Amino acid sequence: MPVTDKMPTAGKIAAAIGLGALGWVASEVFRPLMPPETNFGMFNEVNLVLGLLCGWFVTGTRLGFGYAEGFSAGLTGVGAMVFWALFLQSFNEMLRRALDNRYDGPVEGLTAVMELGVEYGAYMLNGPLIGLLLAGSVIVGVMSEWVSHRWS
């Protein structure tokens, strides 16, 4: 990675803001899909930060090569954001359950992270949520590419 890839650019800022906003909105769409007794805690805030980070480090570093690349960079950024969101939320739930002594050892806890990730992923199989994530990723990628060309 060249040293210039670590420099802030307008495209990286646009991608971070766009994916952060998409992470927040997707969190709001996801909440009603979960069981009513679910305690969300800082769910939206965590997903906002994940969106900012994935926008900066995943989408932002792939900008400046044309609109087709911006399109795919947006999809890649949202894919990374969904992966990390599922992992972190599953890991957080596993830690909560571990504090209640529900696991006999660390391997059982790590296995539970994967099981919880699959369970949460099944809740995400919802048409409006998937449509929001796909459309949002394309818009963020193309707009960030436009910003990277306009202000580079």
From TrEMBL:
Keyword check for Transcription regulation: no
InterPro entries cross-referenced by the UniProt entry: TrgA
Presence of the UniProt keyword Membrane in the record: yes
Residue ranges of the TM segments: 13-34, 46-65, 71-88, 123-143
Keyword annotations of the record: Membrane, Transmembrane, Transmembrane helix
Record NCBIfam families: tellur_TrgA
Protein name per its UniProtKB record: Tellurium resistance protein
